[in-house]
Amino acid sequence: MTFPWSQELPRPGSTRGEEATIERFAKPEDHYASLLEDMCASESVSLGLLEPLLESMKGVMSEDYWITDSRPAFSLCANRNVSLELFELLLEYFPTAASFTSSQFCNFSEESPERLHQDFSVDAYLLHIACANEFCPDLILKLLLKTNP
Predict the structure, then answer these.
(1) How distant is the alpha carbon of residue 4 from its chain centre?
(2) Can you give the residue ranges of every domain in the chain?
(3) What are phi and psi of 124, to 5 degrees?
(4) Beta-bridge partners for 101
């Protein structure tokens, strides 16, 4: 497996955009965060793949990452192959995940007339995403309600 940070460094003729892309992937924590999000969204997500990745990330990622980055949890809740076991494992590493919000899955923009008229929030909780996923087990919904009433 070739890691993004093992790629060739910028050449003298590189644009600033190319250099920024290379810089972003030069940090292992950025690579791990992206890899975890992709794995949680993947149809092939499994305990056998997710558990070793999370364990290897434990020593690399900052404490702040585990309480603020909502992308893996949202990706997993939206995944048709989500299971209670996978979700519980993710919650072990992201203990505040049930209270995370994201506008990524909402159909309303901040300036949307419908949102302004109805006073809708542009943020969704994990519970909203889990409810919208017809394949999400009911036990995950119960766990989310219990964790973040």
Answers:
(1) 19
(2) 16-147
(3) -115, 145
(4) 125
**DSSP one-letter string for 23-65:** HHTTSHHHHHHHHHHHHHHSTT--HHHHHHHHHHHHTTS-HHH
Percent pLDDT > 90 in the chain is: 40
70-79 pLDDT, tens per residue? 889 989 999 9
Mean pLDDT over residues 128-134, rounded? Answer: 88
Find the helix or strand (DSSP H, E) in which 125 lies: strand 124-125
Answer whether residue 50 shows pLDDT above 70. yes
Site of tokens 């993947």: 42
> What is 49-117 written as a DSSP string?
HHHHHHHHHHTTS-HHHHHH--HHHHHHHH-TT--HHHHHHHHHH-TTGGG-EESTT-S--TT-HHHHH
Neighbours of 133 (CB within 10 A): 17
> What is the per-residue pLDDT across 105-121, written as a single tens digit (0 to 9) for each?
555 455 545 444 444 45
| Residue 69 phi, psi (nearest 5) | -85, 105
Q: In this predicted model, which residue has the larger pLDDT, 53 or 123? A: 53
- Quickly count: other Cβ atoms within 10 Å of residue 47's Cβ: 12
